[in-house]
Amino acid sequence: SQYETILVEQRGPVTLITLNRPQALNALNAQVLADLLAALAAFDADDSQGCAVLTGSEKAFAAGADIKEMQAQGFAEMYGTNHFSGYETLTKTRKPIIAAVAGFALGGGCELAMMCDFILAADTAKFGQPEIKLAVAPGMGGSQRLTRAVGKAKAMEMVLTGRMMGAEEAERAGLVSRIVPAADLVEDAVKTATTIAGMAPLAVKANKEMVDAAFETGLSMGVQFERRLFHGLFGTADQKEGMAAFIEKRPGAWTGK
Ligand code: HXC
To answer: Matching PROSITE patterns, A to Z (predicted)?
Structure first.
């Protein structure tokens, strides 16, 4: 494969990306970031692919940023290279990415899962932001995305104590969309991704973009953004096809136009 730290496989219209540094519990080093960015750029550009699944191993989605890589770095290197800012590029992927999390999703691993569009959790999933135990703090958006996902009380407790949260607590708190048995996780995620990939491609992008806008705007601007995109979809051939198909009681045949 062209990647060192991930496995990439196409399952029909779904790109399955598996983090693959088992010796380090999938800790995220510079090579993982480079591999992920390359694989996701290829996915986003490939018209045959409609949704991605990002997963890890049974034991760990990812146990964080690579502590051994960061340990010797000083402020000048971290700030000078804007360390971790590359992950922002990942969030610019226009097609959806589902995080399928089993085992540990800690620190940067939890943050990477939260950068995806939603998280499906195995019953074995454990989420946490334990950076404070290393005398640092989240650096890949965790303090912001966790707070938006679960609210201030739980986010503050999590970052200040570094404790882990299991799958059930994560589902109750709104961090994950669903819990599935660990043995079915990847299969379920690929099935969910296949459903999404079967929708009209422009509608998928528009739906993702408008939900994301909820985190960037106030309510009235967000609703206006939604409505303009909604209006825009009426300029697509697939809207005509989708509504005709409903009336004619048949599945839609999308052109992506
Ligand atoms: C580098 C890591 C690692 C990490 C685990 N390993 N996590 N290497 N960076 N984040 C390595 C271990 O050193 C060990 O290597 C191997 O993976 C197996 O891990 P063990 O600790 O032996 O496994 P276990 O006892 O099962 O414990 C699992 C664990 C623990 C609870 C997940 O590994 C752990 O606490 N990891 C660190 C979690 C963490 O602090 N994450 C946040 C990182 S900071 P060897 O060579 O000994 O076999 C972060 C920051 C983001 O993400 C933003 C700003 C700083």
So the answer is: ENOYL_COA_HYDRATASE
125 in Cβ contact with 167 (< 8 Å): yes
pLDDT in tens, 190-238: 999 999 999 999 999 999 999 999 999 999 999 999 999 999 999 999 9
Q: Which of 19, 26, 33, 67 to mutate to test the pocket of ligand 1 (most atoms within 8 A of CB)?
A: 67
Cα distances (angstroms) measured from residue 165 to each of 103, 109, 139, 214, 250: 11, 13, 19, 25, 44
Res 1 pLDDT > 80: no
Ligand 1 site, CB within 6 A: 24-25, 27, 63-68, 104, 106-108, 130-131, 134, 136, 138-140
Active site includes 253? Answer: no
CA distance 6 to 58: 15
Where would I find the H helices in 52-136?
67-70, 75-80, 86-90, 108-115
Model-level pTM?
0.97
From the list 161, 170, 159, 160, the residue with the least C-alpha distance to 126 is 170
Given a contact cutoff of 8 angstroms between Cβ atoms, the answer to whether 73 and 123 are in contact is no
Catalytic annotation present for 209: no
| Ligand 1 atom closest to residue 59's alpha carbon, by position in its atom list | 26
